[in-house]
Amino acid sequence: MEEEGTPTVSLVSCMHFVRRGIAKPVPEKIELTENELEKIIKQTAEDLRLTEAGDDQSGEEDEAAQSIREPPANPNDEFDFEHYDQEDSSNPVGIGTIATLPNLGDLSENIQIRTEGPDSDEEDDIIKPDDNLLLVGHVETDASVLEVYIFNKEEGSFYVHHDIILPWFPLCIEWLNHDPSDPQPGNLCALGGMDPVIQVWDLDIENCLEPAFKLGRKPNKKKKTKRIGHKDAVLDLSWNTNFSHVLASGSADNTVLLWDLDQGLPHTKLTYFEDKVQSLSFHPLEAQTLLSGCCDGRARVSDCRDEAAFRTWVLPNEIERVHWDRNQPFCFAMSNNIGKVAYVDVRQEEPLWTIDAHQKEVTGLILSEKVPGLMITVGSDEKLKCWDITGPTPLQINERTNRVGQALCAAQCPEAPFAVAVGGDNKECYIEMVDLSNNDEVMNRFGQRVTTESNAEAMDA
Fold this sequence. Notes:
Elements: E1 10-18, E2 28-31, H1 34-52, E3 112-114, E4 132-140, E5 143-152, E6 157-166, E7 170-176, E8 188-193, E9 198-202, E10 205-206, E11 213-215, E12 234-239, E13 246-251, E14 256-260, E15 265-270, E16 277-282, E17 289-294, E18 298-303, E19 310-314, E20 319-324, E21 331-336, E22 340-345, E23 353-356, E24 362-367, E25 374-379, E26 383-388, E27 395-401, E28 407-412, E29 419-424, E30 431-435, H2 440-446, H3 455-460
């Protein structure tokens, strides 16, 4: 029972769908002895005490640690983006000092990874090939949790499979399959939040109390360690599907870092932003192209081979979300904090169009991969809207009121493109699955447009 006067908070701050067939059917389960659990709790409490005592020092970046790789042939191309399409059979496993592997080796012989037993046969525990995972950052009063949902459109099922307790308020989620400790593709989730250190969790392991590895390190006077990574909260993450060892992070410290996951270190730092970087998106086809949205009212398309190469489009006051259009590879959409959405062709200096989509912030922006021309916007005005953007100006097709209150985020299911998850701050319903296939207006307009693969993928093939 909550004490009188205790503030109650229940909200979903971020979410991300995972494609079918990636997760293990039966995730491994870690069982800790009481002694090991007590040891971890004490260590966590000590870390928190050091942080609260102000042992961090605002020092310079650890330049020496960031120069452990051989320089590329082109000094302006840190990740050798020019040759990203050339296969590299090697898979270096060079985790640096800031990338820590799961704490299995630090635990006693009493630790067990259990994959068999009574619980493994429970139907709800088994992840089927046609199940999608939905990763949800959930805050409940003073507790923050990563919830891993099972969503099955055909069966109509939607429930929490397992969850992970987080040490801070989560702000962004990105899925990736690049595991620096394993040459085989993994099932990992990178989380950014109020802390400048990024955590990467293994979604195929339940009951894990430590992330698979971390990106970044705070400075500490007692340990005489310098800062690595961001100085402030991490607001968004984008994984490079073409250069799978690269992860981009945008921060409230007005910078973007490109992390080398194999080294566990940032190797490129973009510093030309004039305010917080709120949204990031790597181009789906061009490994070197990164789209960013900033609180300075500008969207920038950067060539990561050259730190000084970027182009800018303006949408004042603050840009909330940016999103590439996979069906129009030269185009992207951006939204801001006063309800506007603009659509840009990077070959032109001005947006193709700008509309007043909502009365307040547009916190969810989706350009459908499987339904060409379908744009979905979600705002803190409690509305979800569907648009047809195939013409010279967008046409609103449908509008509905969300049950979640002020929507904070939205995500579209990859294999069920008319299923949209919306997260908000209504304690009675903080996450809602919206099935647009039940809406006649939407289906009459878009029902025949669904593709098995996006036009962009077909063009690339």
